[in-house]
Write a structure and sequence with these properties.
Oligomer: single chain
Number of helices: 11
Radius of gyration: 57 Å
Helix content: 25-40%
Strand content: 25-35%
Largest sheet: 10 strands, antiparallel
């Protein structure tokens, strides 16, 4: 059975006007063209076996119901697919129609407008091109019959007629040509103007003295010129220049020094070219013996230089700069020897000194050739006679070289990095015994240092410049035993107790009417542990107990540990059972190294033998 298309039963009719049942019936009776499919018939033996089953199935009423159900499922599935496809085709057609309409609108409006504008703009040029084509064609034809001269004459005559005919178009053509020419001129002007180097022309007393990039350059030049005058003792010399600026084009610019020289030339005729020496940026002096000054400066460093040592730098303690070729007032020039005297002389300077262990005011003062009163006068911020502590920083005023040479040596060394040790408790090892689980390995650093030597001193100031790790250290892991021997952990009234000195040697005496606790003998420094967890209520010194600790365990229970060599806890600290709280010693009233141990329950002292009878 082949069904072309169906609609649901609740619709009035199909497209052909028939009801669903009629459509189905019509579809059953209508001839359907199908391709013949050749199916192989089942083997006789199989057919013989299946026929009884088929006949039996047809006799059962359930077979008809199942067939109708399968038919309905197939019918509605086919109908749903067909209807969905039809709606998708309708939606696609609608979208295509809208898109075509929009495209046609753009073509009819924008496209036509642009095309018309282009035709209008290009029409004169098209006519001009066609005119020239006609002239050339006319000349070629006439040349064949009347010769070249007459042909050219005919062409010119044709051109003249064209000019007269299209003369009215000349003026409108300017509406096209002039904007193009104006645009080209604008681009040229902008490109040319932007390519100019616009600077400020400096005018002094009506004369352009030079060009600078900005007003700041001129201000820096006047400041430098003022420094030249003031630094050389010419404070009384009048120097007032009021410049004017104008925008100009120039490729030659002056810096501050050049502008200062020009200003100096404009202000006085008594000027001279000289060499200036600046110390830490301040002008010290000016001399005409510049070459000799250069040689002297070099001679100060020469004894310390070693061209074969690339790691050596020879410098001055101050920044020294020599400037040649600048102009200065003639009466400001200093002779070379005066400059040398200043450079090799002394000045008052300050050094700092940090008080070391064992220092006293008199010893520190004598190191610097001072009296204690002079040292006090230079450090008024503190009373060195009553307040003089290690780490205090003192200021010492003393004469020092004005200009000193320093040698800076860069050295690279490799240094070992010590490894850390981590201790982990292990219940498998006897108490206070140790086992190395992982050996530690030292690491390696590459360190760059700078050693600075001042003058002829051989004692450097060393500064670390950089540090690079070449190999990371490996941590050493150590296991510490926490396992207690049999009998060292016992049950008490409110929990358990542990024996306070696991590595003990024996019992000197137990608690008695004349002795308040048990004395546990052990080696000096053996660990004393908390018999139970709790809070430290006492940790300190007692004339009889020596170093001792009391722990409150709660529930009316307390323990006391005495005669320790040192303590490992403090008051208020919470401790856990088995934690080290002190170390065996013989402090206070004691004979021999031991731990005096007392136990309390409900405020009553009890004998440790009650719980640790087997020890």
């Amino acid at each position: 059975m082949a069904i072309k298309e169906k609609t649901p039963p609740d619709e009035q009719q199909l497209e052909g006007g028939a009801a669903p049942e009629q459509a189905a019936e019509t579809a059953e009776t209508a001839p359907v063209k199908e391709k013949k499919k050749h199916r192989a018939a089942p083997p006789p033996r199989v057919k013989k076996a299946l026929d009884p089953l088929v006949t039996k199935a047809k006799q059962k009423p359930q077979t008809a119901v199942l067939g109708q159900f399968l038919y309905d499922v197939g019918f509605w599935a086919e109908y749903t697919v067909l209807r969905a496809g039809r709606r998708l085709r309708s939606f696609g057609a609608l979208v295509r129609g809208k898109a075509c309409a929009v495209g046609q609108f753009i073509k009819d409006t924008v496209g036509k407008s642009l095309l018309n504008a282009w035709r209008e703009l290009s029409a004169p040029f098209v006519r001009l091109r066609n005119g020239f084509k006609n002239i050339f064609a006319l000349v070629r034809e006439e040349k064949k019959t009347v010769g070249t001269a007459k042909a050219v004459g005919e062409g010119l005559a044709y051109f003249g007629r064209g000019v007269r005919r299209y003369a009215p178009l000349i003026r409108p053509s300017f509406a096209y040509v002039l904007p193009v020419l104006a645009l080209g001129l604008f681009v040229y002007v902008v490109n040319t103007v932007l390519g100019y180097n616009y600077v400020l022309a400096v005018e002094v007393n009506g004369k352009v003295v030079g060009h600078v990039q900005s007003e700041q350059v001129f201000d820096a030049a006047t400041a430098e010129l003022t420094q030249r005058i003031d630094a050389l003792g010419d404070e009384d010399r009048e120097f007032t220049i009021t410049p004017t600026y104008s925008l100009d084009v120039s490729d030659t610019l002056m810096d501050e020094a050049q502008m200062a020289n020009v200003l100096l030339q404009e202000s006085s005729d008594e000027i001279q070219e000289a060499t200036a020496i600046y110390i830490d940026g301040e002008l010290l002096a000016v001399t005409t013996e510049g070459e000799a000054l250069h040689e002297f400066i070099d001679s100060l460093k020469a004894p310390y230089e070693d061209p074969n040592n690339p790691n050596l730098r020879v410098e001055f303690t101050k920044d020294v700069e020599l400037q040649d070729g600048n102009l200065y007032f003639t009466d400001s020039i200093t002779d070379l020897q005066s400059i040398i005297d200043v450079l090799t002389g002394e000045e008052q300077g300050e050094v700092t000194y940090t008080v070391q262990q064992g220092d006293v005011p008199s010893s520190v003062a004598s190191k610097f050739g001072l009296s204690v009163s002079q040292l006090q006068a230079q450090n008024p911020q503190q009373d060195i006679l009553t307040s003089f502590y290690v780490g205090d920083v003192l200021t010492i005023s003393q004469a020092m070289p004005y200009l000193e040479v320093k040698r800076v040596v860069t050295r690279t060394v490799q240094e070992e990095i010590p490894y850390d040790t981590v201790t982990t408790d292990s219940a498998d090892l006897p108490f206070d015994t140790y086992k190395i689980e992982q050996e530690g390995e030292t690491g390696l650093d590459e360190v760059v240092y700078e050693d600075t030597y001042y003058g002829d001193s051989n004692t450097p100031e060393t500064v670390e410049i950089s540090r690079t790790t070449l190999k990371e250290p490996v941590t050493r892991v150590r296991l510490r035993g926490t396992k207690l021997a049999n009998g060292m952990v016992v049950s008490g009234t409110n929990g358990t107790w542990v024996w306070p000195v696991p590595n003990y040697k024996g019992i000197s005496r137990w608690m008695s009417s004349t002795h308040k606790g048990v004395d546990i003998r052990a080696n000096y420094g053996a660990s004393i542990i908390a018999s139970d967890g709790g809070v430290v209520t006492t940790a300190g010194w007692h004339y009889s107990y020596g170093n001792y600790v009391i722990i409150n365990h709660g529930g009316g229970r307390q323990t006391l540990y005495a005669h320790a060599s040192s303590l490992a806890v403090h008051v208020g600290q919470a401790v856990s059972q088995g934690q080290v709280i002190a170390y065996v010693g013989s402090t206070g009233i004691s004979t021999g190294n031991h731990c005096h141990f007392e136990m309390f329950e409900n405020g009553v002292r009890i004998s440790a033998k009650k719980y640790f009878a087997g020890m």
